[in-house]
Amino acid sequence: MDIRSLRYFVEVVKQQSFTRAADALFVTQPTISKMLKQLEDELDRPLLMREGRKLLLTDSGQAVYQRGLAILDEFRQLESELEDIGSLKKGRLRLGIPPMVGTQMADLISSFRRRYPGIELLIAEFGGLTVQQAVLSGELDVALTALTAETETTLNVLPLFSHPLCAVVPRAAPWLDRTGIALAELGDWPVLIYNEDFALHRHLMRAFQAEGINPQIAVRSGQWDFLAAMAEAGIGIAILPEPICQRLDKSRLLWLPVTPPMMWQLGLIWRQGIYLPHSAQAWIEACRRHWPQGGALER
User: Fold this and answer.
1) What percent of the chain is helix, strand and coil (3-state, nearest 5)?
2) Which ranges of the chain does DSSP label H, i.e. alpha helix?
3) Nearest to residue 123, comparing CAs of 114, 115, 133, 134?
4) How confident is residue 297, by pLDDT bands cut at 50, 70 and 90?
5) Mean pLDDT value across residues 25-53
6) Confidence of residue 72 (pLDDT cuts 50, 70, 90)
């Protein structure tokens, strides 16, 4: 059943006139008559009958009219909702964020919520590789992740920002006079790193392999504060991004830049060649505005 023919039929009943209905709908009277005839033919029963100058509903016409009012009202609500979604007054964004960068995203999330209060944010916190699979499977619309050479080529990538990696050690000998630590030195110490589902883990292991280092991995964890606590306890050297290090207790821990510099680069990923919700498009644009230099590197 064509929604337009149903709208024409309801208007004719309301106006009690084909002519007035045509004027109200900005169409010709023959168009109204043709559409109603098609509706009756489709339903295989008459809907209207004339009694003098009055238009009366048959039993079937009464049923179609009552249901038609409800259907048209639902359709108007649907049109309104679609308009709200298109204008970002309503919607949902499924966003992936690594646990270690939540604080860096707080200002952006706050400004996004102020600008689009009707968009519901569903935030999933996973390691980078898990997030990447969630985007590929369609469980997430867009995600922030550490970018590596293994980032799927079937994903769109928008680099946003990067920070150096640092070696976190106790504020004690033999580190007190050090200003940095060579990557090659890390082979001589137990290492504390992120779990294997974090892109940073893969990034570090690839760097060790390039240096011919067989790392002594003492602890793997998905929690940066736990790795820092293990470093403070002298269990090993934690490798953490510089922004995370800035949150550590300076009276107990030191963080030394790794040389040659190792960068932790983060960016947005989303699937290529699929429909991207308006909310996700708005988030991508918000990230471009927030990190304009990083966004210029999009591939």
Assistant:
1) 45, 25, 30
2) 3-15, 18-25, 29-43, 59-86, 102-115, 128-136, 199-210, 224-232, 242-245, 278-290, 292-295
3) 134
4) very low
5) 89
6) confident
